[in-house]
Amino acid sequence: MRTFFKRTPAFFSGVVIGAVVSMVTLTASVALAGTGVGGIFNLGKTNSVNARTTLSGATAGRQLQVSNSSAGAGATGIGINVAAGKPPLSVNSSTKVSHLNADYLDGLHASALQTRVSGSCPSASGIRKVNANGTVACSLPVPVPDLQRVAELNWYAGVYQGGSYAFANPQAVAFDGTHLWVANAASSTVTELNASDGSWVRTLSGGSYDFINPNGVAFDGSHLWVTNLNGNSVTELNVSDGSWVRTLSGGSYGFSSPAAVAFDGSHLWVVNNNSVTELNASDGSWIRTLSGGSYAFNLSYAVAFDGTHMWVTNLIGNSVTEFNVSDGSWVRTLSGGSYAFSGPEGVAFDGSHLWVANYGNSVTEFNASDGSWVRTLSGGSYAFNSPYGVAFDGSHLWVANTNGNSVTELNASDGSWVRTLSGGSYGLNSPIGVAFDGSHLWVTNSGNDSVTELPAG
User: Which CATH number is associated with domain 156-455?
Assistant: First the structure.
């Protein structure tokens, strides 16, 4: 199920206007006392007032209940007409209204929350137009969500689950410029989604694909590469149609529980338990395997490319290894001291710094230029709880908290906390992987076999 931004439907409940329960019963004409103004209110007729009428008290339950038993066209409980663009209803309450259809209640139709874009756009209106079938008519350049309006209406990101999606313990997720690709470890499948509307494209399984507990996913510009954790292999696919290209295993490849993969522009780097394998993206041929010595790989888990070097997290070694992509030579291994690595899992590059999610409830930032420590974030508002995956959106970092069922957003400029998303319609449940598509974040939930889409801040 997917809604671009999903909001709770239906009726008002327990705030100002109650559920339809009983008819307001008054005599043919009745005086309604106000504050300073009084007069006669005639039922069944048009009444005109130019002063506020106040109904106050301390009644347990609803103060006003309206019932309309008519099944005729246009029958409603209450009709409110106001000037265009003005909100017909105001609710002074800190409690979220459940079962509320918010269209026009704030004076704006849902279309007013369509994502606006910066720069030129093929349409004269300059907005991203979403057609009835979910396709996007205008989506370039990168869209920027109107987060203030989204927040005011308690709109939430889409949650994709069940049906054709067939998610089963989804792990890594990758973006190819148009589609998202999700590795499903439990079902040994890969699911493809449209980034524009979250619709299902296909699920790949069986046959030549040879998926066995797929875990890592990377895009090289035309092909997708999937690491098979329990198959000790790597599968290559065409992103154009999902067709199988080849499966690499055995021999010189030396794959051993390959967990992650990254692309450097010409080569793939596959992270194994205690080694890293380099492949040609053009034909999948083996180049070299790095292991032992100074590399200090120790249950290596994730990898990130900074334009010159690769950075690999070592889960058991509580360290991060850096090496040159030009020849695979070792540069340095970071550990101990201020780095405070504790079960390092995910790693992301923001253009100048690396960010490592430590399963021990912290995030470490260091300089890509020399590996020097910048800061370690933990405690307080960060609310890290077994952080796992991490992604950069151009200005912020997003950290998936596996045991917290939440995602924490940070400012990349100074590491300050922005927000922690959890509960409600987010559907976050043991989140693992995080990917950015240029406007939205996609989070895989291993706990409830779903993928959540969030608007980037």
Answer: 2.130.10.10
